[in-house]
């Protein structure tokens, strides 16, 4: 993923640009110290001056009045609040008419923000005061007063508290009097900007200590950046909370929500004082110190599923690559791509006006239908259908494009839903409530009506993440969830009369996922990666649950890893530094699940008997190895200690055997490295590599292999003879060492 920067040759403003704000996904307003408010139309690339403010008004912050949720897609913001250095804030219409100017603070008004509902405005001043105002600009209360200027202020996701800066400290203060105030030291320099996302509930802060940081809503640090060369002057969350942008002097950075960086650009902008994301989350605008407004499009997002990789190459184009045969398909769209999801053999793409559904079997004829509402913020897929979430509601469609249902509940806010708070299976939709976080709403997928007798799933603690299992019968459908204590629970979604048991499966679980092919659950616990091969065991006999677990050390994933997907028997985990790790789990439990669901009991029993056979055969083959060192090395390999096994063989002078174990493990780089280092069996390694590539119909691309293969003819007869010689030599060495031992014993 990267940013595609566009910057005009000459700036449209004569002085520094202090703030920017989007009205639609294609229209932006910018304010500058030259007193101009300029409108930018990105479709026509035209700019026009909306109004020239009086010479004593130097704008500092701009925030458009929020559109009320669920209004049709063509609507746009009609007015904005502009704060200025003269101690006033101004309510200005879209046409540039100043509707009202309000004396707000002594000294400059450094920030002004509408709450999510548009019912209140918060302002922060150089005088250290935080004030709450009504929609029409009437003072409601002075929330806080301090001795240092407040450089930045934002509303909490529920509009019931505000976060603001106090020098090096961050403070979260609820609107209710006498409620607990949360305060912590966040930076080593003055904090210049904060942002708080309503979807992921995470906080961003930027400071003069040249760092940006990510916090949870309790003030716990989640990410701390390396110091930059210059102070960080702006930070902003993307609307869906998956990405954020960071601005500094000649610097624009795109980051994942966990903090690691996707892209770093160095545009000629001066300091970027303010960053605004477009409503659809596809582009960024930055207010620059040299009079420019910088625009950046997010491109090259990637989606992967099995052997397919889809890349967004341009705003309206995608490339699909099948890694098995290197076939490439180009997909073009009428409008810009906003969201996409690839799963269950289908690619679902939402643009600004339409939804496209592609089958992985045929990329040429997508199914296309018009979208009901505005920007899609989330796409979830199940085997039979998919879910679209936008500002107006939740909509379930079949892969043939047929509308199925639209679940609703009182007080539903679709703008704050994400993949952790909504889950979809073939027959059920689960949604975590934001108003009461201990509750999960359950709906029938086919009708959109509450499941069973309409009873809600209620837990004793706040719930953080939910996930429905994907296979099996409706009556057996289970939901797993993690609560705020990081405990993992499982329960049935079927709720008729009697209260269903909620059973604890594990503790200190940070992330979870169900397999897409069978009801196997995996999760990252404190220091372990755990797989529950049959979580339903807890309903039969809790004592045998440990026998159905697979556990391995998770320290290699570093801090705060996240499970991206669980496809078949492969789990993909993203580490805190952004790198992906793929883990394969045993395929046998999945096959056993399949046999049981098809009532193939005899096949299931046969599989259980067979599973250990490969290990038994391997152990038997170790017995037949000629030397003690070889046996030792293969026992080490059996227990997963590859490097130690190689070391044992090399120390015993069994170089060929060390090369061969690397060939057997497809560790081609190391096999060639050893052959070159010890000047032996280079042709053997090249021969096995060639055979491997021919099996898959691939050409050699590795530069080292191409270098050593140049001019070399592979002669398998000669290679087999060399291998025979190595084995004979090893036998002779072994028997001679044994006979020397016998002689020593006799003496």
UniProtKB/TrEMBL annotation:
Entry keyword set: Cell projection, Cilium, WD repeat
PROSITE patterns named in the record: WD_REPEATS_2, WD_REPEATS_REGION
UniProt repeat feature WD, residue ranges: 102-134, 184-216
SUPFAM superfamilies reported in the protein's UniProt record: WD40 repeat-like
Cell compartments where the protein resides: Cell projection, Cilium
Primary location class: other
Highest taxon above the source species: Eukaryota
Keyword Repeat belongs to the record: no
InterPro entries assigned: Beta-prop_IFT80_2nd (IPR056456), TPR_IFT80_172_dom (IPR056157), WD40/YVTN_repeat-like_dom_sf (IPR015943), WD40_repeat_dom_sf (IPR036322), WD40_rpt (IPR001680)
Residue intervals of the IFT80/172/WDR35 TPR domain: 612-732
Ranges for domain IFT80 second beta-propeller: 300-588
One Pfam assignment: WD40
Signal peptide start and end residues: none
PANTHER family: INTRAFLAGELLAR TRANSPORT PROTEIN 80 HOMOLOG, OUTER SEGMENT 5
Protein name: Intraflagellar transport protein 80 homolog isoform X2
Annotated source species: Acinonyx jubatus (Cheetah)
Lineage of the species this protein comes from: Eukaryota, Metazoa, Chordata, Craniata, Vertebrata
């Amino acid at each position: 993923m990267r940013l595609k920067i566009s910057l005009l040759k000459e700036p449209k403003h004569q002085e520094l640009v202090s703030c920017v704000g989007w009205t639609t996904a294609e229209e932006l307003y910018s304010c500058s110290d030259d007193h101009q408010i300029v409108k930018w139309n990105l479709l026509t690339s035209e700019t026009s001056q909306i109004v020239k403010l009086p010479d004593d008004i130097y704008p500092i912050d701009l925030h458009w009045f929020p559109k009320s949720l669920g209004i049709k897609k063509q609507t746009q913001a009609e007015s904005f609040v502009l704060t200025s250095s003269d101690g006033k804030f101004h309510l200005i219409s879209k046409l540039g008419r100043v509707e009202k100017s309000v004396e707000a603070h002594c000294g400059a008004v450094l920030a002004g923000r509408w709450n999510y509902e548009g019912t209140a405005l918060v302002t922060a001043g150089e005088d250290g005061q935080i004030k709450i105002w009504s929609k029409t600009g009437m003072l409601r209360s002075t929330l806080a007063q301090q001795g240092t200027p407040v450089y930045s202020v934002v509303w909490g996701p529920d509009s019931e508290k505000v976060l603001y800066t106090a020098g090096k400290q961050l403070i979260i203060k609820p609107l209710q009097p006498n409620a607990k105030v949360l305060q912590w030291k966040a930076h080593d320099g003055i904090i210049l900007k904060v942002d708080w996302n309503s979807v992921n509930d995470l906080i961003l802060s930027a400071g003069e200590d040249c760092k940006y940081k990510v916090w949870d809503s309790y003030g716990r640090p989640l990410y701390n950046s390396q110091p930059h060369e210059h102070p960080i002057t702006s930070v902003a969350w993307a609307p869906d909370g998956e990405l954020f942008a960071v601005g500094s002097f000649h610097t624009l950075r795109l980051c994942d929500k966990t903090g690691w960086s996707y892209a770093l650009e160095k545009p000629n902008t001066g300091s970027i004082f303010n960053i605004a994301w477009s409503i659809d989350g596809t582009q960024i605008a930055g207010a620059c110190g040299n009079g420019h407004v910088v625009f950046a499009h997010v491109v090259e997002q990637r989606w992967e599923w099995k052997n397919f990789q889809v890349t967004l190459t341009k705003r309206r184009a995608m490339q699909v690559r099948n890694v098995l045969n290197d076939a490439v398909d180009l997909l073009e769209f009428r409008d810009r791509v906003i969201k996409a999801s690839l799963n269950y053999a289908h690619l679902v793409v939402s643009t600004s006006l339409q939804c496209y559904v592609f089958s992985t079997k045929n990329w040429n004829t997508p199914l296309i239908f018009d979208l009901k509402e505005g920007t899609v913020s989330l796409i979830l897929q199940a085997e039979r259908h998919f879910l679209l979430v936008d500002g107006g509601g939740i909509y379930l469609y079949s892969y043939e494009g047929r509308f199925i249902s639209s679940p609703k509940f009182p007080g539903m806010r679709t703008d704050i839903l994400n993949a952790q708070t909504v889950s979809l299976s073939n027959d059920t939709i689960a949604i975590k409530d934001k108003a009461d976080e201990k509750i999960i709403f359950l709906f029938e997928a086919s009708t959109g009506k509450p499941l069973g007798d309409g009873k809600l799933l209620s837990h004793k603690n706040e719930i953080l993440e939910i996930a429905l299992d994907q296979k099996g019968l409706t009556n057996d459908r289970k939901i797993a969830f993690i609560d705020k204590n990081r405990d993992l629970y499982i329960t049935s979604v079927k709720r008729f009369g009697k209260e269903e048991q909620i059973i604890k499966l594990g503790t200190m679980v940070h992330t979870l996922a169900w397999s897409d092919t069978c009801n196997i659950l995996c999760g990252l616990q404190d220091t372990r990666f755990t797989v529950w091969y049959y979580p339903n065991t807890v309903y039969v006999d809790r004592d045998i649950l440990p026998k159905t677990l697979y556990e391995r050390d998770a320290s290699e994933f570093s801090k705060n890893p996240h499970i991206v997907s669980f496809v078949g028997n492969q789990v993909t985990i993203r580490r805190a530094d952004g790198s992906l790790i793929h883990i394969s789990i045993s395929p046998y439990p999945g096959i056993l699940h399949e046999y049981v669901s098809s009532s193939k009991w005899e096949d299931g029993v046969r599989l259980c008997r067979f599973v250990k056979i490969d290990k038994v055969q391997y152990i038997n083959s170790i017995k037949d190895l000629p030397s003690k060192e070889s046996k030792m090395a293969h026992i080490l390999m059996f227990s997963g200690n590859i490097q130690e096994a190689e070391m044992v063989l090399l120390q015993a002078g069994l170089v060929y055997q060390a090369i061969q174990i690397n060939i057997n493990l497809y560790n081609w780089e190391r096999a060639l490295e050893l052959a070159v280092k010890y000047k032996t069996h280079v042709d053997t390694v090249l021969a096995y590599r060639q055979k491997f590539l021919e099996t898959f119909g691939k050409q050699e691309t590795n530069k080292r292999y191409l270098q050593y293969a140049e001019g070399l003819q592979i002669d398998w007869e000669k290679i087999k003879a060399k291998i025979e010689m190595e084995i004979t030599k090893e036998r002779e060495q072994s028997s001679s060492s044994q006979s020397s031992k016998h002689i020593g014993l006799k003496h």
